[in-house]
Fold:
Amino acid sequence: MVYRVILPLIFVGLWSSAFVSAKVGVQYATPFAMLMLRFGIVSCLFGLIMLAAWTLRYSPPETPERPVMALTALVGLLLHGIYLGSVFFALSRGLSAGISALIVSLQPLLASGLAIILFDERLRPVQIIGMLAGITGVVLVLLPKMDGAMPMIGLASVTVGLAAVTGGTLLQKKIGGKIDLLTSNLIQSLAATAFFLVICATVEPPQIDWQPPFLLALGWLVLMVSMGAYLILMVLIRRDSMAAVSSLMFLVPPVTAIIAAIGFDEPLTLLGILGFCVTSGGVYLVTRYASPGTS
Structure:
């Protein structure tokens, strides 16, 4: 029981911290350059871990089939490359963080709806109520931060990110049991690194100012988010229903707002606190009545 509660809480905390770390990092580097460096380092670390694991076991793990490896690379492209890249690009084009987070937070609805078709999952009425409460809470948290400026290119970009994170999550749910987590994460990070290398070579000339805040932000994103949060996400996707895993994303905007209020003195209004409570209740309803292991 403790495992089922603590692991999701750690994931939400780490995932939320990524937005704050990114806010620090992009002040010292162009967004795609930071992402390229991040996943390049992650790829090296996962490679070293895999080499150490092989040495300790005296033999490498069973090599996944080529179609599974290709689909795993596609998951990395969707989750790490297109999703993060599109959100960073949208922000750089003037779309507010509030609007971006609100659009991406619609992922649980889209993922759970598709999971009904793809994985034969069923949502109970109480779960539907929970998801609606989650959306309501997110809106309450983000509403004070919204403004009228919504550049269409930014809006289109973050919508692509929504589709990418939804597709990547569903695809990982489908193939997760066919490849071990270490190999999966290495392939995914390599795919993301290649993607951002191409972007930096063709679209965005990379610029990095190697100041201590940038190094701290990069280190946190590499160790705690890319290697910590994503690994937990893969475990949760394999263990729980799609609705239960996706519903955790409802907590990310409120928790991010709390972290930003502490770290950047961003105001956290009474309306925001109310939204956090409503979202927490909605997540509880979805996860409490989910069927573990449904696939």
User: Anything to note?
Assistant: The first helix runs from residue 2 to 25. The CA atoms of residues 112 and 243 lie 5 Å apart. The chain is about 75% helix and 0% strand. The mean pLDDT is 79.
